[in-house]
Amino acid sequence: MARRDTAIHLVAGGVAGTAGAIATCPLEVVKTRLQSSACHFGPPGPIASPNSGTCGPLRGARRNFTTAVALPSPLRPRMGLVQCLRHIVEHEGPRALFKGLGPNLVGVAPSRAIYFCAYSQSKQFLNNTITPDTPLVHIGAASCAGFVACTATNPIWFVKTRLQLDQRINGTRTTALQCITQIYKQSGIKGFYKGITASYFGISETVVHFVIYEAIKAHLIARRHGGDKNGDKGSRDFIEFMMAGATSKTVASCVAYPHEVARTRLREEGSKYRSFWQTIALVGHEEGVRGLYRGLATQLVRQIPNTAIMMSTYEAVVYLLNKHMNSDFYEH
Predict the structure, then answer these.
(1) DSSP 145-164
(2) CA spacing 20 to 30 A to 159: which of 69, 98, 101, 185?
(3) So what's the pLDDT on residue 185?
(4) Cβ–Cβ < 8 Å for 84, 122
């Protein structure tokens, strides 16, 4: 039974993560660009002078990093989500909206599978150890799952971020293999774990998300099914789970967002950012509080549908697999 449950949560987590990643990849690219210190959506070419307010390819920006970050904040182009999407399509082509999708798809299924499996197993262990289904159980399970998933998959997300920050045109686009080779030559295996400290701090976002989600979900089940978690569920239940996931993730993202900016900055090529707290302090000093929330609006636009799709898909797959396996059990 335990092995069957583990397999169900692995499959459900993988399917859910893949569905969300494909649907929201263009928004992920825009968000990552906005979080970066060097990429401000200028046309390809040499890095801008202070009067032009544009930005060239990442490699060029790295050679002139001091000039790039010294630009006063008002001179940096400010774009809305639609403008950013249009700009990427015009200067880099439609395919650029899906930069990093390869590593994302390679990583999201095992990452979500590992996460949901670790969450389920941790939750089951804690429920048998302390008072079951309390916020403390959800916090412990989410923390454990986040730590395991971050540690296992950080190299994949590091490569994805580097690819999304690449602003070169189609003919010179960096492939995932080239990116991996370059990182290894520069920093060895250790280089693939830049930003992992920020990811660990980001576990707080996951904890807030799951505590709120579990509370809303328990309330919905109590209201509609009298607390029976295994009762038959219809389309309305999964729509409500979708809304619960979106609501909980919105609150969590707003609370813990600065860690995402710090993580992206730490993963930049040739970056002057060295550690999590040093990055937070430096961004706050140079760009103010607003700098710590770069890309938040895009993150929320991306994260809400992504989380809604992921959580509802996860709940649906778990429900269907459980129902199918139980029916097979009774038939035999």
Answers:
(1) HHHHHHHHHHHHHHHHHHHH
(2) 69
(3) 92
(4) no
